[in-house]
Task: inverse folding
């Protein structure tokens, strides 16, 4: 029997949208010169602005081993990627995101100080500063939009599991009492 208590939950499930993560390919050369071929998993947060949640690919001929939360050298990052750094307000540096390889921690960030561009700051795997300088982005391509389940779907699943467990244990308890 349909219970009215579930009506708000079902309404939330119907209204809740599905989140999307984009896959963004970024190819660049930095001042070392190292070539980076990145595959970003990111959520759009504005026109050409992405909140980066994962990084794979290669940098300097080495496989990228993952994203680092926080900045090992400067302390914090925004985890944003601007496909066009002119979107930054004037006189701004965005701290970008940090990824690692077996040998390096690399921060790719954007700036807008009279001219706009990208730069990298590189540390070794022990976070010893190796240098910083301009990076040239040769291409940025949004490859696909991957749907992600909404939080409401997870919540609905948890409620269904709890309701099923409650009924199971209630029936089990009733059966045990009847057998006594």
Result:
């Amino acid at each position: 029997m349909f219970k009215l208590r579930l009506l708000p939950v079902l309404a939330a499930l119907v209204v809740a949208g599905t989140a999307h993560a984009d896959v963004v390919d970024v190819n660049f050369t930095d001042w070392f010169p190292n070539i980076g071929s990145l595959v970003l998993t990111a959520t759009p947060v504005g026109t050409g602005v992405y909140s980066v949640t994962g990084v794979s690919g290669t940098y300097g001929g080495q496989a990228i081993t993952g994203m680092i939360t926080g900045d090992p050298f400067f302390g914090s990052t925004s985890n944003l990627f601007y496909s066009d750094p002119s979107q930054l307000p004037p006189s701004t540096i965005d701290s970008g995101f940090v990824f690692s390889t077996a040998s390096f921690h690399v921060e790719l960030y954007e700036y807008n100080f009279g001219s706009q561009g990208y730069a990298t700051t590189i540390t070794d795997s022990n976070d010893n500063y190796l240098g910083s300088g301009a990076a040239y982005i040769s291409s940025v391509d949004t490859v696909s939009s991957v749907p992600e389940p909404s939080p409401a779907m997870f919540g609905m699943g948890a409620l269904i599991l709890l309701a099923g467990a409650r009924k199971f244990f209630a029936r089990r308890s009733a059966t045990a009492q009847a057998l006594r």
Remarks:
- The chain has two domains: 4-15+150-179, 19-148.
- The first helix runs from residue 7 to 15.
- The beta strands are 19-30, 35-46, 49-59, 62-63, 66-68, 80-82, 92-100, 104-113, 115-124, 129-148.
